[in-house]
Amino acid sequence: MITHLRSTKPVLAFALAFACGAAGLVTPSATTLAADASPAVAGVPAAPRVGELRVAMRTLWEDHITYTRNYIISALADLPDKDAVAARLLANQDAIGAAIKPYYGEAAGDKLAGLLRDHILIATKVVDAAKTGDGDALSTRQAEWSANGKDIAAFLSGANPNWSRAELEAALQKHLDLTTGEVVARLNKDWEADIHSYDLGHQHMLMFADTLTTGIAKQFPSKVGK
């Protein structure tokens, strides 16, 4: 039985206020958020306020961490919903990528979605390797996960000067460590430790989302109302 997984640096990456629908997701559109934020001028939707941006971003990140947990539970227990949960988790990555397009353009949004989808696909292989106790496969997948995470951290830090690459990697590493704690605890049937890791990870994701909100508001003051 595996009692420890080596730390890696995956990323549960970028979220903007404009949560978009993807693959059946029901989330606010950019137009809806803007229309609800403040009065439009000359027919142009007003920018969302910081508080609305914060709520929308937290929603994306909560979906990410919640469905990551659901996948861990389903995969380790061989539940029949495993593939459906994985599909929903991948859809979240598409929504996150689509959400940055109003700021950074189509190509950047597609690039981020692709990096995030790779992150999730690698994560499923990490869980499988941990479950079977294949140490060599686990090391290989973790190395791939870490490399992918570094690519995403570089992308995010390059997109917004308010976030340093080192700080993003540290925050994302903490997320990985806490998620790893869930996997290890479930493999060892330590349910209290499993729940504790998830609770800490959930709170960490909310703090991370808030950090991104602050950075976006600073970078785009004309697009984010007070």
UniProtKB/TrEMBL annotation:
Which positions carry the signal peptide feature in this UniProt record?
Answer: 1-22
Q: What superkingdom heads the lineage?
A: Bacteria
Query: Sorted alphabetically, which keywords does the UniProt record give?
Result: Signal
PROSITE patterns for the chain = PROKAR_LIPOPROTEIN
Q: What is this protein called?
A: Glycosyltransferase
